[in-house]
């Protein structure tokens, strides 16, 4: 049984007459101890997918279809009062900006202890001891001192460690990480990645890693899902996808990474912009920017398997099906 | 910390000095108090005697220098009209004004903040829209008009509440207060409501917008992602943050409540400092005007200092320290 199983998740933004189809029939699953990277550019719907799984969509965002199953339980059927008991307990989420994630007027201790006590009947002192142990586990030096500190007294990297500690303190089965390293410098990025990698090895936590950075996904994720204009266009084992992309969009993304071409050669750029999504274009959504587009692409391309547990949503994939 | 206090104290003294000089010159320029003080039948000789007696025969800078000299000894001069020490007249009236201002601030906070929180949390509900519209009304109606309407409605037509004076006062630590008796409460209610209406609307709108702002912050989303109870998110995570602007504005507005009490006190014949000031200005009773303003400025400075200290207490990011 997968830890997380998402089927045909569809999210609309705005009124019911002409909504933007921000996320369209996204399906994914994550196994115990597995890291899945959800990669895409801004506006591709990757963050909304993460928020929807955590049940954190607010109007004007609406989940209009799909089923989210966590540890065999259908989350999409639960009322908010029940969903709240799962959040921070069985599934946890950390966000991008460590400077804004923690409440500035509450001590670190308060924010950790309240997370424990929101889900488990633990005494104040026992919760405090747990919080202390957690800070130690996420690599905070002098944890007893930091526990009494306010967020502004910690550096950005330390704050992200604290936020991750607060998210993991009830030992969730699933961690949704929405670009938690984007706001940090490269050294800290590597440290945070190593921290989460070690944690999931120790605890078997499933991780959904949302990022726009293919480089981060490359060194860390087991599988990668590439999103474009609200759809997953390619999925497969990380190493295989990055080595030999099947979808023209993935190939274009890889071509735009500095270092992917010899020095002196200009980086490849994609002409045009992502399409508007209210309503989304007919057929393949990447059609207008795709170097391989042909007449057939006016119809919606099927999701085809290309072997090695890979799928691609394209009529003319770069990797031929077996 | 102590360096901070000392700097604030020096600032306050400079403000007081400048203000007293301005008022001294201004009242001097308005007119000659003797024209109002002395019997029109009095002869030139009598007038000159009174003028000398009050020290008004000297040029204004000499008068100001004398005033400052006396001030060092805690003497603010005697009222031209009453012959009593001006500062005593003002301080006698101060409890009435402070009582009115505190009552108005409490009403504004107890009504404005909860309603503002509701409007901020449920901006789409019809009740929030209604409250929001009413607060706009409360924001724009002039105080004196509201006071007169209250008197018409509750005093004259319905006859429920008295419309003037403080009613029966009781002594608390030697200070006469209206809130000690039912009769005093009945007298206090209308002027306090009148004075509170504007501040209540202000605090309501401030609380509502601060709440909306706080709800958009990442820390609220993260609190929800951790599965905290909605009540904890609102009353701890949001409220502790919006308390910072609420306390700041309340403190500053408390000073202006004391100042605006002048109008309300006049409308409701509330025997406070404001009413005394209006009378003193009418009679060009300079020592009383100066004493009133010195007391008011001192109150302002004290309140601002208290707000700064409270601010540092509420927001851990603010620490008051002196830089050398």
TrEMBL record, chain A:
Q: Listed GO molecular functions?
A: ATP binding
**UniProt keyword ATP-binding, yes or no:** yes
Membrane topology for this entry? Peripheral membrane protein
Going by the UniProt record, its keywords in alphabetical order are: ATP-binding, Cell membrane, Membrane, Nucleotide-binding, Transport
Domain named ABC transporter is located at: 4-254
Q: Which PROSITE patterns match?
A: ABC_TRANSPORTER_1 (PS00211), ABC_TRANSPORTER_2 (PS50893)
Name of the protein this chain belongs to: ABC transporter ATP-binding protein
CDD domains in the record, alphabetically?
Answer: ABC_NikE_OppD_transporters
| PANTHER family named among the record's database cross-references | DIPEPTIDE TRANSPORT ATP-BINDING PROTEIN DPPD, OLIGOPEPTIDE TRANSPORT ATP-BINDING PROTEIN APPD
Regarding protein family, the annotation reads: Belongs to the ABC transporter superfamily.
* Subcellular location, principal: membrane
Per its UniProt record, what Gene3D superfamilies does this chain match? Answer: P-loop containing nucleotide triphosphate hydrolases
Known InterPro entries for this protein? AAA+_ATPase (IPR003593), ABC_Ni/Peptide_Import (IPR050388), ABC_transporter-like_ATP-bd (IPR003439), ABC_transporter-like_CS (IPR017871), Oligopep_ABC_C (IPR013563), P-loop_NTPase (IPR027417)
Q: Which organism is it from?
A: Jeongeupia chitinilytica
Instruction: Name a Pfam family for this protein.
Output: oligo_HPY
Subcellular localization(s) per the UniProt record? Cell inner membrane
Automatic annotation (TrEMBL), chain B:
The UniProt entry lists the main location of this chain as membrane
Transmembrane regions listed in the UniProt entry: 12-31, 100-121, 133-160, 188-208, 242-270, 290-314
Residue ranges that the Swiss-Prot or TrEMBL entry lists as coiled coil: none
Q: Write down the superkingdom of origin.
A: Bacteria
Q: How does it sit in the membrane?
A: Multi-pass membrane protein
Q: Which UniProt keywords apply?
A: Cell membrane, Membrane, Transmembrane, Transmembrane helix, Transport
Q: Report domain ABC transmembrane type-1 positions.
A: 94-311
Q: Does the keyword Transport feature in the UniProt annotation?
A: yes
Keyword Cell division on entry: no
Annotated InterPro entries: BPD_transp_1_N, MetI-like, MetI-like_sf
Tell me where in or outside the cell this protein is found: Cell membrane
Per the record, the similarity remark reads: Belongs to the binding-protein-dependent transport system permease family.
The name of this protein is ABC transporter permease
Record lineage: Bacteria, Pseudomonadati, Pseudomonadota, Betaproteobacteria, Neisseriales
